Amino acid sequence: MLNQGFLEDQQISFFPFPANMISLPNQNLKTLSPSYHLPQHSKPEQHLTSHFGLPLQSSNANYWAWGEVGEIISNKILGMGRDDHHHHLGVSGMKMKKMKSRRKVREPRFCFKTMSDVDVLDDGYKWRKYGQKVVKNTQHPRSYYRCTQDNCRVKKRVERLAEDPRMVITTYEGRHAHSPSQNEEDSEANTAKLCNFWL
DNA sequence: CGTTTTTGACCAGCGC
DNA sequence: GCGCTGGTCAAAAACG
Fold first, then answer.
1. pTM, whole model, 2 decimals?
2. Which of A5, A55, A134, A185 is 20 to 30 A from A70, comparing alpha carbons?
3. Nucleotides of C under 7 A from a protein CB
């Protein structure tokens, strides 16, 4: 049975990503273990299927990948977070006022699963960690990251599979309103490769 | 010393 | 209402 869900009223698309769509720029590969390119056979994890409300799709590529094209309904709280300046005006973060629910904002979200011994894959963007949580029925904590770019509210969370600690689940939420970090000298190549990702 | 991470507390949503 | 759970905040600590 699927989890209650934000998915029920939206269209869902699958991403049986070809391996080359997900592969990271060469520059970044050195930070990854060899096993990153040597996936082993694995089976879809049942609890993940229900968590995301999506059947996993296998491919013969290097990755299990799945996701959605769609939107989620945000909560009705406005003025949260440091990219919103309401709380600098005397409303403390923990005493935020509930504002009238604006038009519901929906954010695209998708996730994928890779085999890697590093938790945070270098995707060309700069992230700041803002939380970590141990979720039920898992032994590895889930980490929450936010894009450091101003006016960019993209978030991602990273967790490791309890059943197979070699696997990392990365979930992106939102869409970047800017290009990946300009610090990398071959950022053009990065952008070229990653554009498949974010479009 | 500016930026990022850590970490416990807080919050909202859900099920009962 | 209460308790559980996942997501977020923010102060302090760590980092470079």
1. 0.56
2. A134
3. 4-11
Residue A9 corresponds to which amino acid? D
pLDDT one-digit tens code per residue, A126-165: 899 999 999 988 889 999 999 988 888 899 999 988 778 8
Rounded to whole angstroms, the Cα distance separating A199 from A193 reads 11
Is the C-beta atom of A44 closer than 7 angstroms to strand C?
no
Name which of A75, A78, A79, A81 is nearest A104 in CA terms. Answer: A75
Which residue is it, tokens 């994928």? Answer: A112
Instruction: Assign residue A137 a region (left: φ > 0; alpha: ψ between -120 and 50; beta: otherwise).
Output: left
Q: Are A160 and A198 in contact (CB under 8 A)?
A: no
Nearest nt to the A131 alpha carbon by C1': C8
The separation between the first and the last C-alpha atoms of chain A, rounded to the nearest angstrom, is 31
Strand C lies under 7 A from the Cβ of residue A94: yes
Backbone angles phi, psi at A110, to 5 degrees: -155, 165
